[in-house]
Structures are given as C-alpha cells and as structure tokens.
C-alpha cells in the first residue's frame, strides 16, 4: 500500500508542472465564482503602489461604471488627485501647492478618459471573446509563497502581469503600466 502512495506523492509535483494558463485562469474564476457575481459589480476601489522613477508611492483608485474614475496619491501629508466624470477630466496637485481643480485638455484629457475606461468585469472572464490572450510565464516566489505568473495581452495591445497563488489560485498581485500620461508610464502594482 505504501508504494502507490509514494508514487502519487512523487507524481504530484510533476502533475502541477503541467498546468496551462487556461487551467490556472479557470481555477481562479471558479474560486471567485466566475462571472456570476461580477455582473453585479458597479463600483470598485483598488489600492496599490506605483514606481515613479525609483520612488514608490501608494495610490487608491475609485471607479464607477460606466466611466467615472478618481485616482489619489497621498504622500507626506500632501496628495495628487485626478478624476473623470464621463465627460471631462480634472486634477489637483497639492505637491505643487494647487488647491483647486485644473481642467484637463488635449492629451491629458484623453489620458484620463483612457484611465477612466472602467472595466469592472475582470479581463479573464470571456477573455478569448474579448480578443485577449494569456500566457503562462512560469513560477516565482514572493513573500515566501509560490505563484504562477500569467501575462495577459489585451486586444488593444496593453500587457498586464498577474501572480496567482500556486495552490489556492488566489490573485495576489497585478503589474501593469499606467495609461495616464501624467504618470509617465509608471509601473503599477495592485
């Protein structure tokens, strides 16, 4: 009886190496109840960090469908904020002692509108129908835990990297490049 258990124990690591990007995404979607609950989501708050020239800042985003968005970066008692109400964008940069909103025009307004493209449904739900592609990049260890690394290439060309826990399939980290010109393509970790 010990031999079959020993063989199964030895085979489990090999079986887990056979995971595909589709397998991992399916397990993640099963864990979060797939698209069922996501259809009811109308607003979302996201927290993370972005790397601005080697300096890491915290940020919080507030999104409400279909196109309302606010981005806030607090630091040392000051903040940078910008928002989009579906029609126009604004910003306040308290780091530059601004106290009233400045309306965004031209490329800044377009960047804010792109950032406000509120996608409350996670991109993995029906990703193939959306024209997205996924790829398993491998595994990595973060904070002493093992993760699968999945790259999502969106139909518009944006690339995002996701870290899924190797046994629970929970999403741990998402890395992406900011669309917002103000952030100068800073790396966002959410």
UniProtKB/TrEMBL annotation:
Keywords: Signal
Span of the signal peptide: 1-21
Domain of life of the source: Bacteria
Listed name of the protein: Outer membrane lipoprotein carrier protein LolA
Natural source organism: Pseudochryseolinea flava
């Amino acid at each position: 009886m010990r031999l079959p258990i020993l063989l199964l124990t030895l085979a489990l690591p090999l079986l887990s190496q056979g995971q595909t990007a589709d397998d991992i995404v399916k397990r993640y979607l099963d864990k979060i109840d797939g698209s069922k609950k996501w259809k009811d989501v109308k607003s979302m708050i996201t927290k993370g960090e972005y790397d601005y020239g080697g300096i890491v800042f915290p940020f919080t985003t507030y999104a409400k469908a279909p196109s309302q968005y606010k981005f806030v970066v607090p630091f040392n008692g000051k903040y940078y904020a910008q928002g989009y109400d579906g029609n126009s964008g604004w910003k306040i940069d308290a780091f530059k002692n601004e106290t009233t909103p400045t309306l965004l025009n031209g490329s800044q307004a377009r960047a804010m509108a792109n950032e406000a493209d509120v996608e409350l449904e996670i991109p993995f739900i029906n990703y193939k129908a959306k024209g997205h592609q996924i790829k398993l990049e491998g595994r990595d260890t973060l904070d002493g835990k093992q993760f699968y690394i999945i790259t999502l290439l969106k139909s518009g060309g944006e690339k995002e990297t996701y870290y899924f826990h190797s046994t629970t399939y929970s999403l741990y980290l998402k890395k992406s490049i900011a669309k917002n010109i103000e952030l100068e393509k800073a790396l966002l970790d959410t």
